Amino acid sequence: MEALRQPKMPVQEREEAVKCQLCERTAATNLCVYHQMAMERVKEAYPLWVSAYGSIGWKEYLDNVKRNVQTGRWAKETAEFLEKIE
Ligand SMILES: [Zn+2]
Question: Which residue has the higher pLDDT, 20 or 17?
């Protein structure tokens, strides 16, 4: 009896690698890890802004994020993206 061989399955190339919607990087979802991280931060910071400024709308917040000189490039692009999809 021939020993059971591992069937040689052709390794499926992940041809349909998704591209980040904001840059050219390959992404697991619609955003690459960098933009994903930036989005997390933008979303996390929102409640802080609300408590600091009283009531601030989501769009108004995103607008502030974009115009803030201290906002990094990733976060700015993410804020623009969030504005578009909201
Ligand atoms: Zn990206």
Answer: 20
